[in-house]
Specification:
It holds the Pfam family TetR_N. By secondary structure, the chain is mostly helical. The chain has helices at about 5-35, 45-50, 55-60, 65-80, 90-95, 100-130, 135-160, 170-180, 185-190, 195-210. It is about 80% helix and about 0% strand. Helix 1 (about 5-35) crosses helix 2 (about 45-50).
């Protein structure tokens, strides 16, 4: 005789996995459309058609187009759709545990290169849409605030390791990191000037080490 509790649990797990797969299919389709034709020109009907689902399914999972784009940014930033905050990821713990400031900075920037490679193109979509769309303007501001929080965390960790220049406060170091390690600079060098991501990483390491470390 089957156990009704186990059966219900199994069904719930399958439903959750199916819902997760559907969300992923929708965001994958939307990302391709956003990158190809921009945010304003992409409709929920187009996203649904590209994902092979009914438009009501997109509404059920996300509610609106802005929420679809927000999830794309979140997943690309993290590298997966696991509910683990960025600052609790293993590589951030590795930075925290590394006693040498220069090596800690290098670990952070190596992971930043990977993240920027995934998320910079879609952040360009958000930035371009922000001027004419209030929800995208709010999304851009949220992402900027999150990025500053992350870089302030790095600056504080470098200060704790006594790696910062003695004439530089933690706040000043955070401002420098936030400005230099930005989507705008990454896109200018890799997109406009044709640098490779590896070249960007070497330059950003040398630039930041000279600017903030003693």
């Amino acid at each position: 005789m089957s156990d009704p509790v186990k059966s219900a649990t199994g069904q719930g797990t399958r439903r959750a996995a199916q819902a997760r797969a559907t969300r992923r299919r929708i965001t994958d389709a939307a990302r391709e459309l956003f990158l190809r034709q921009g945010y304003a020109s992409t409709t929920l009907d187009q996203i649904a058609a590209a994902a092979g689902v009914a438009v009501q399914t997109v509404y059920f999972h996300f509610g609106n187009k802005a929420t679809v784009l927000k999830e794309i940014v979140d997943v690309l930033s993290a590298g997966d759709d696991e509910p683990i905050p960025m600052l609790e990821r293993p590589w951030v713990q590795q930075v925290r545990d590394e006693p040498d400031g220069r090596r800690a900075l290098a670990i952070w920037l190596s992971n930043s290169r990977v993240i920027f490679g995934r998320v910079a193109p879609i952040m360009k979509v958000v930035r371009d849409a922000a001027g004419a769309d209030a929800e995208m303007a709010a999304q851009w501001e949220t992402n900027q605030n999150q990025r500053f929080l992350a870089h302030h965390t790095l600056a504080r960790q470098l200060a704790d390791k006594r790696a910062l220049r003695p004439d530089l406060s933690t706040e000043e170091a955070a401002d420098v990191i936030f400005t230099v390690v930005s989507f705008e600079v990454y896109l200018l060098l890799t997109g406009v000037r044709g640098w490779t991501p590896d070249a960007w990483e070497r330059w950003i390491n040398e630039t930041l080490a000279a600017a903030i470390l003693h």
